[in-house]
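Here is a complete protein record:
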Amino acid sequence: MNRLSLGFTLALSMAGNVSAEIYGEAGLDYVHASSDKLIDNIMLSGVVGLRINDYLGLETRLGFDAFSLIFDDDPVDGSGDFVNGFVAGFGRFTFPVSHYVKPYALLGWEGMNVSTKRCFVPGFSGCSTNYETHSGFAYGGGVDFRIAKGVYLKTEVTHFGHEDVRFNTFSVGMTGLF
């Protein structure tokens, strides 16, 4: 019984050192693929994360191509391969240099939704669209720059590959603690 009490007391004291915080982020992502067929894209993205302590965290991410809804970035005939969106999950490993600069590394999984549009006669509705998902192990890193209490400016790079295509993403955004 004494070991159980000691273990319970030790677990409670360690839980007191955990300072979990939930944060959210909005940003712009530039996605480049190593394939000549895929067209580079700018996407809107959002992140929801749980910072377990000053060094460890978990993140989920979602991004989508909102700009093609506003701007016509298709080639002249409407054909091409486009990244429509992505979803990702990362473990985040932060190396706090100071209260104002926090570099971090990311390890996890990422998936990209790619549409392939082929138009047979330019200007007519003779087009077909196929969708593919590319996913795999992802890694990256970035830096958070504190600009106010609980508000950070971030810049980051992530990479992942699927079969013979490498996806590289450069991101900038704002992060806020809840």
